[in-house]
């Protein structure tokens, strides 16, 4: 049985971590402001799916396997690094530009059908 003192310090710490906004929350809010409600819902669904996959993998023992097998850890680490490099190269090759001006900002700042630049 867990001691009360341990539980009394653990629960508030866990609650603080759960309530604090993380990168997934910031990303979801950013996409919602940038592209609207449906994009925010899709982004939230995607991040929740990622958390579900991570939790399922941990439950199935991937964490234990990676902890005990140095080779498995290296494989996952290098595959992850290669994937991040791939994403970075794709971002630099893309013609899309990062635009902070959202549709909402354009509507608010528009005058007489013409848009002002932020």
Automatic annotation (TrEMBL):
Signal peptide: none annotated. It holds the Pfam family LysE. Keywords: Cell membrane, Membrane, Transmembrane, Transmembrane helix. The keyword Ribonucleoprotein does not apply. It is found in: Cell membrane. GO terms for molecular function: amino acid transmembrane transporter activity. The chain crosses the membrane at residues 40-63, 70-89. It is a multi-pass membrane protein. Its main location: membrane. InterPro entries: LeuE-type (IPR001123). GO terms for cellular component: plasma membrane. PANTHER family: ARGININE EXPORTER PROTEIN ARGO, ARGININE EXPORTER PROTEIN ARGO-RELATED. This is Arginine exporter protein ArgO. It comes from Halalkalicoccus paucihalophilus.
């Amino acid at each position: 049985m867990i001691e009360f003192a341990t539980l009394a310090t653990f629960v508030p710490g866990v609650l603080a971590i759960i309530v604090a906004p993380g990168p997934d929350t910031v990303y979801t809010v950013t996409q919602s402001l940038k592209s609207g409600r449906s994009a925010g819902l899709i982004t939230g669904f995607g991040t929740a799916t990622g958390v579900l996959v991570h939790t399922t993998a941990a439950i199935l023992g991937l964490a234990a396997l990676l902890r005990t097998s140095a080779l498995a850890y290296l494989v996952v680490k290098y595959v992850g690094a290669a994937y991040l490099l791939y994403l970075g190269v794709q971002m630099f090759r893309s013609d899309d530009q990062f635009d902070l001006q959202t549709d909402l900002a354009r509507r608010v700042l528009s005058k007489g059908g013409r848009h002002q630049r932020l």
